[in-house]
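Limitations
The structure tokens in this dataset are predictions for the assembled complex, not deposited experimental models. Users should treat interface geometry with appropriate caution, especially where small molecules or nucleic acid strands are included. An illustrative entry is reproduced here so readers can see what is and is not provided.
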Amino acid sequence: MKTVPLCLITVVTESILKERLIQVIQDCGSRGHTITNAEGEGCRHRRVGEILGDNIRLETIVSEEVADRILQVLSTDYFDRYAVIAYQSSVSVVRGEKYV
Amino acid sequence: MFDVLKINLCSPLTLAFALGVFARLVRSELSLPRDLYTSLSIYLLFALGLKGGVELSHSSLAAITWPALVTILIGCITPTTSYLVLRRLGRFSIADSAAIAAHYGSVSAVTFIAAQQFVTQAGSPAEGFMPTLLTLLEIPGIQIALAIGAFQMSRMPRQSEGDEPSSAKRSTKELLHELLTSRSMILLVGGLVIGASVGDSGWKAVQPVFEGLFKGLLTLFLLEMGLAAGARIGDLRHTGVFLLGFGIVMPLLHGSLGAYLGSLAGLSVGGCTVLATMAASASYIAAPPAVRMTLPEANPTYYLTAALAITFPFNLIFGIPIYYAISKAICL
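Predicted assembly:
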């Protein structure tokens, strides 16, 4: 099967940021995403899930340039202020044209 | 005074809350599904709105004008005094002071319901239009405290070069939209409008669900609140003695102010008690998401612990009977 190398960006964050982060990744050029509920604990504070909602895991498959843009916005606007972790991994996908 | 305190301590609401706290303290595996918490809060807010709307249809505009005006006045005073006390006396940061002030400026719907139940049981029920006052008090407190925070922070020198982040910053319009279209506002205001339009005949059809089940489901909700508060008790170690004192003394001051202004507006003993409880309570449904989004610099441990683990239990157990005694002394 012919596959295309692309980047998978995964963002785990507070669910109250959902709408804003979807806007961010769309503005950066993402064409789709998947959101799932997430649970866990970070290095700073215990999460305040019972009132503020649980965490979400936002995933999007994008080109390297779009991935750079997303990580740039997250690091300048969100990392200091909210509970956010984000990472990039390499993936091989079929139908590469769907994502870029 | 001790008699009313005893009535309050032995009510299923207080005992369910205590059971929730106890379950957390002994590390029981008991937890209510998150969806049940959401469903119960939707039911309680909508029932509150509907019942209030039906009662509102019996009230005249003249009767509600002064109570509404003093409620808005309370909504302007409580966040300002809370901010000043936290910032000047407590030496909290601007963001933390504004965040906590937003919670104390807004109102807790569950404490409000508990106060209504209490005054009815004590034989002096509050005026029927009280839920309308609840909706009036919900928004301004949050807005004023967040505006003070934003204004004070804009006067501080920037820590790093460049402007505020673009995508993370929200405009006042966005914030107002979020508050006005929040779950609690839609359910309360929508319930009031529906209740007022259908009147007594329409209410009878839905009464078994929205009144018959109300107390039982409220008791279940209080169990969940006890679990949430119990989970925060450990955080009291991090919040310090000042916030503990603030969470008890500030409601007493705001409650006294509410009772006094309520009596000036011509409310009954029951009405004054409920208004005092509204002034004294701290929100934990509407305020936390608004604050988290607008003032991310503020530490959630401070504002959630103060509202949920200090002020809410204090008001539920001691506050409401105290505001009742104050109201009785002022009104008689």
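Some entries come with short summary sentences. For this one: Residues 300-331 of chain B form the longest helix (32 residues).
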